[in-house]
Specification:
The chain has 429 residues and is of the alpha/beta class. The chain has a domain of 208 residues: Alpha-beta prism (UDP-n-acetylglucosamine1-carboxyvinyl-transferase, Chain), CATH 3.65.10.10. Helix content is 30%, strand content 27%. It has a 5-stranded mixed beta sheet with strand order 15-16-14-1-23. Strands 3-4-2-13 form a 4-stranded mixed beta sheet, covered by helices on one side. Helix 12 links the parallel strand 21 and strand 22. Helix 7 runs parallel beside helix 12.
């Protein structure tokens, strides 16, 4: 029987890779980036930066970005195609908004159904001219302006992308920009700023609320960046090792940012045998090794308050829940309806098709786990073009050899082009 054994180094973190490229482009010189994730999404950001006049070259496995400084983007000669990448669209909207250029952002069919107004309302308050050709979606035209008004922004909804976009805009503005988060979000942007010695103030206002204050404009000195390995990508192999008998793996140099590894705490509460050991700090991020071995999982309830820290991992957590004894409840998942697919629908539809007892009520998911499901006839899994749905069910398919057929694995390249190669390396009989 197949099991997962051995150790691998996961590809670079997607969130950090986007930010590394953008901050490097805003620096005043040459920045070398190591372990950059070369996924479709990240390459969208890279190619847009090139279109904005930034020289970027690759030598062997290292990328070099020649920054033009804050406010240094040039007028693009064509539309800026974000493909499937929501991160690209939102971060680059913020970055270009305080440059004296005008540009149009487009995306694929999936991205063109995802809301842009959650960011555009903030940029418009600052004075940016933004035209959405549809009510709330791409294509979007933005007229940037170096004279945008620095101001205080209160973010009622949790979004690390919106926060980061405002920060990127503020870097080129004269005066104080303040961001108040009512619900804390991932802090990769702030960590990278500290590493790059960009001065800003961050205060804890309450257990769940923080403020960030910037006083621009900034001159960002070039500094080489190492991208830590992606914990969200590691999650697929972690769950695989937990649910496949006799598995034992080690994942190396994984980013251990506390806003990104909440899923490990969830899996431990389910009975997962997981050991995490910090080894060093790279470019502002703690990294370490994660050891995982096969475990008998039990169902738990995941509260809505955890959703901002688990949003990317719910698809693979649903796979863990399918093998856990009892009914796992995942609450407050409204954000999942606005990803590459309606992930609540994608999870429920596919698990039901296999034979699991699952249900959804409003924005909650209920999964009655069982490791005794037997599949007689082949079942076709529909990915809906969603990379995380595809990878999650590839992992589950390891338990049902030749019985689960994934309809489209090509979308995996959006976030993890080396996924199948790494899975093959760990797979043994």
């Amino acid at each position: 029987m197949l099991k997962l054994k051995g150790s691998i180094k996961i590809s670079g973190d997607k969130s950090i890779s986007h930010r590394a490229l953008i901050f490097a482009s805003l620096s005043t010189g040459k920045v070398k980036i190591s372990n950059l994730l070369e996924s479709d999404d990240v390459m969208r950001t890279l190619n847009i930066l090139k279109e904005l006049g930034i020289k970027i070259v690759k030598k062997k496995t290292q990328w070099t970005v020649y920054g033009n400084g804050t406010g240094g983007y040039l007028q693009p000669s064509q539309v800026l195609d974000c493909g499937n990448s929501g991160t690209t669209s939102r971060l680059m909207m913020g970055a270009v908004s305080s440059n004296p250029i005008n540009c149009t952002f487009i995306g694929d069919n999936s991205l063109s159904k995802r809301s842009m107004s959650r960011l555009s309302i903030f940029l418009e308050k600052m004075g940016a001219e933004i035209k959405l050709t549809k009510k709330d979606f791409l294509p979007l035209h933005i007229n940037g302006d170096i004279n945008l008004i620095p101001m205080e922004h209160v973010m009622q909804k949790a979004s690390a992308q919106v926060k980061s976009a405002i920060i990127l805009s503020a870097l080129n503005l004269r005066g104080i920009t303040k961001i108040i988060e009512k619900r804390n979000t991932r802090d990769h942007t702030e960590r990278l700023m500290r590493y790059l010695k960009i001065n800003f103030k961050k205060k804890i206002l309450s257990k769940s609320s923080t403020s960030i204050e910037l006083n621009g404009p900034y001159e960002i000195k070039p500094r080489d960046i190492i991208v830590a390995s992606d914990p969200s990508s590691a999650a697929f192999f972690i769950v695989g090792a937990l649910i496949i008998p006799k598995s034992m793996i080690t994942l190396k140099n994984i980013a251990l940012n506390k806003t990104r590894i909440a899923f490990i705490d969830v899996l431990k509460k389910m009975g997962g045998k997981i050991k995490v050991k910090k080894t060093k700090t790279v470019s502002g991020e703690d990294v370490g090794n994660i050891k995982v071995s096969y475990s008998l999982l039990k169902a738990i309830e995941i509260k809505a308050s955890a959703a901002p820290y688990l949003i990317d991992e719910y698809p693979i957590l649903s796979i863990a829940a399918s093998q856990a004894k009892g009914v796992t409840v995942m609450k407050g998942l409204s954000e999942l309806r606005h990803k590459e697919s309606d992930r609540i629908k994608s999870i429920i539809t596919n698990l039901s098709k296999i034979g699991f007892k699952v249900a959804s009520k409003k924005d909650d998911i209920f999964i009655n786990g069982s490791n005794e499901i037997k599949i007689v006839n082949q079942k076709k899994i529909k990915t809906y073009g969603d990379h995380r749905i595809a990878m999650s069910f590839v992992i589950l398919s390891l338990l049902y050899k030749n019985k689960l057929i994934i309809d489209d694995e090509s979308c995996i390249s959006i976030s993890y082009p080396d996924f199948k190669k790494h899975l093959k390396k760990l797979s043994t009989y």
